[in-house]
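[INFO] parsing input record for GP-PDE domain-containing protein
[DEBUG] input buffer:
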Amino acid sequence: MCAAMYVLSTVTGYVLTSVLLFKCPSLLHRKKRETFRGRHISHRGGAGENLENTMAAFSHAVQLGTDMLELDCHLTKDEQVVVSHDASLKRSTGVCANISDLAYTELPPYLCKLDVTFQKECFCEGGEDKHIPLLADVFEAFPNTPINIDIKANNDTLIRKVSDLVMKYDREHMTVWGNSSNKIVQKCYKENPRIPILFSIKRVLLLVGLFYTGLLPFVPLREQFLEIPMPSIITKLKDPRRMTKSQRIVTWLADTLLMRKALFDHLTARGIQVYVWVLNDEEDFQRAFDLGATGVMTDYPTKLKEFMERQST
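[DEBUG] output buffer:
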């Protein structure tokens, strides 16, 4: 009887403490300092409105008033940091070669028409700008625009050079970097801990586990940005009729576990911004913001801007 009472009192105390700290995380953790707030985020500069990761795309998004540009980086053979999503040039240029095998001056231009990855059966036809830019070009052109950098390769030289560029252009306070790979994120943090990092997939899974066990309020987090997909959009990218029952169950389960307002609110209270990607429909914009996401990443910056303007009136 005494043992049962002891266990009950211990569990009750744990639950009550967890709930209190979950609702009031400042009692245990100092809120992270926010140097910018990204609500409107342009994925690859806005891959549905201009050719992805081009200066034209970035310029268009910045002129619209985007809060943040999202882009991807690779390293050329002559160790130039370029802005491109794929390691291979096949999809984007039609050339069967890797970026790492060519010098910067040898890189071919983009094709006239590229697929929009997160919009079913949709393509973007670009204008005159089909040039793969240097990261330095983007930093010089948009000195006051926060940038989200996806380090696409586990390459120490790439990570060091990106860090050097961030410091050269005095952008540590408005840059976030990382990758889904935990190894890459750890290397980024080790190279320059002053640049805020994203949660890797491994850390997202840990975060979800801590959330559902009630341990999250007790655990310090060094990441400052949670960037996660909305799993339900898979049904818009694939024909639901061709999805197996197990695929539908996994999608539903992932969406249920990840899209939690309580989790987003707790992280926001700790100064951790929550970005949901890649959303291209207004119903998904609405759902993300209703859930407490601090930002939405989209291929269609004009559509997101118009949505946000209507919501603010």
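[INFO] The first strand starts at residue 40 and ends at 43.
[INFO] shutting down worker
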